[in-house]
Amino acid sequence: MHSYLPFEKPVIELKEKITELKSFTEEKDIDLSTEITKLEERLEQLENDIYGNLQPWQRVQIARHSERPTTLDYIGELFTDFLEMHGDRLYGDDEAVVGGIARYKGIPVTVIGHQRGKDTKENLRRNFGMPHPEGYRKALRLMKQAEKFSRPVVTFIDTKGAFPGKAAEERGQSEAIARNLAEMAGLKVPVICLVIGEGGSGGALGLGVGNYIHMLENSTYSVISPEGASSILWKDGSFAQQASETMRITAPDLKELGVIDEMVPEVRGGAHKDLKQQAAYMDDVLERSLHTLRNQTAEQLVQQRWEKYKQIGQTTGESAVSSGD
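That's the Acetyl-coenzyme A carboxylase carboxyl transferase subunit alpha sequence above. Prediction below.
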């Protein structure tokens, strides 16, 4: 049984009731099929009501779920022959970022992503998925290697943000992220980015400049966390739910705003409910994207990337402010 979020309690209780009745039927040899059918119909309706109308804060909670699949989970499902590479050749290896070479349906690719843990021990090892500068430099090393050997790059984004500690700043955190932004913009190979959990601040952007940016339905992508925005706007972090509703950080909002290219549907209740099915949804989007980009020249890829980011944030029509106003 997966751990559940507060808003899922009615669904979990009803599922437990159905399981209880089925066990009772088997043990006592009493026909309760009519009652069970009615409860299952009610469960279907309840799940549609809850999961079909998720609010921004509920999506934030799902994106942060401790059992949500990580980069390594998806690599295991989507790719073959994965060979992880380590180190930035400057300082050391950052386990908050994983990367290496693999095959996708026989095509050699470079895969890079943020990696968080699923328990305390692994989170400490992975620094809770918050990279140091060497993590971004490792990622850039692998991207430039991919460019040298004409391999497409696939990145998975899942971080609260880059690590804000003193040591990270001393080793050039902001410079490492800025360099990644500049270098990714000019890579002469296809770059596909997938937001699979939390896409937080510059820590996410350091792996997020691509020809296509896709986002799982219950992921978030924002310049700051709802708690951080709440602290700034209301001087109180307890207004995170209200902040999440105004920030437009969820996949449906960002698709509408043109920040992402495609919203990848999730398994009902969240990606953690069924990894294999979720990977199948992602596989469909990834295959289509890669097929389109592999038909473009290096110059076309760079130009497409430039046009894509140039259009983000533009306004048209009555909402635009003319230079004469």
